[in-house]
Amino acid sequence: MKQIVKIADPHGLVLEPGPGEGALTRELAERAEVIAYELDPLLAAKLRARATGATVVKGDFTSAKAPDRPFSVVGNIPFSATSKIVDWCLRARHLTSATLVTQLEYARKRSGDYGRWSLVTVASWPWFTWELAGRIDRESFRPVPSVDSGILRVDRRPEPLAEDRGAYLELVERGFQGVGGSLYASLGRPRHAFQEAGIAHDTVVGYVHPDQWVTLFRSMRG
């Protein structure tokens, strides 16, 4: 848990999804104001007794209303709820960062560690950075899961790289839904924009770096 806390660097208001027995909760509560969301009523009751420095809410984190002030999310989250939790974080207006323990494969895909880039990462790139900030061997957990874990760090950028969210998302969705075999074939857009972004005409969509997407977007609108 200390590795997670070090990477998260908790301060101010911290929301924790799925605290379970509360090992991470207690570490976070020593450094920040913590609100922990636990679905299991028995675990929630135990956590209230064990982590007296935290506020424990019995309920689904992904159904919670996001705070109207800056906050971060830190959690060793249930793998089955990863996508829902990440989506919630990306929609939260005042989220500053999210530090989440996920399946290693998920963290690698979202951070581009395989050399490919997912739609979720590319679509959110002008507003968020994604990083595989650490790895945790499965033997570190009890009971032992079937896969290793990764510590995924998502940070909101101080200033967005694109102002028109709707137009940028439309471009990304068209690119990923295309059937042309390459991004150039899918979009059928000006050659100069691809040259400026450094994207070869035969580059498959998944191998286009998010920074190249931003450059392509700006060039096409320029």
Can you offer a commentary on this structure?
The chain is α/β, with parallel strands linked by helices and 222 residues long. The termini are far apart. The protein has a 7-stranded mixed sheet, with helices on both faces. The model has no long low-confidence stretch (mean pLDDT 94). Helix 9 (191-197) packs across helix 10. Helices cover 38% and strands 22% of the residues.
Secondary-structure map:
Blueprint: H1 2-8, E1 13-17, H2 23-29, E2 33-38, H3 41-50, E3 54-58, E4 71-76, H4 82-91, E5 95-103, H5 104-111, H6 119-124, E6 128-136, E7 149-156, H7 165-177, H8 183-187, H9 191-197, H10 210-221
Parallel strand pairs: 1-2, 1-4, 2-3, 4-5
Antiparallel strand pairs: 5-7, 6-7
Helix pairs in contact: 9-10
How many strands, what sense, and barrel or not for the largest sheet?
Answer: 7 strands, mixed
Shape: elongated
Low-confidence stretches: none
Give the % helix: 25-40%
First and last CA, distance? 47 Å
Number of helices in the DSSP assignment: 10
Strand order of the largest sheet: 3-2-1-4-5-7-6
- Mean pLDDT score: 94
- Percent of residues in beta strands? 15-25%
| Count of beta strands | 7
Could you tell me the radius of gyration in angstroms? 19 Å
From N to C, what is the helix and strand string? Answer: HEHEHEEHEHHEEHHHH
Class by SSE composition: alpha/beta
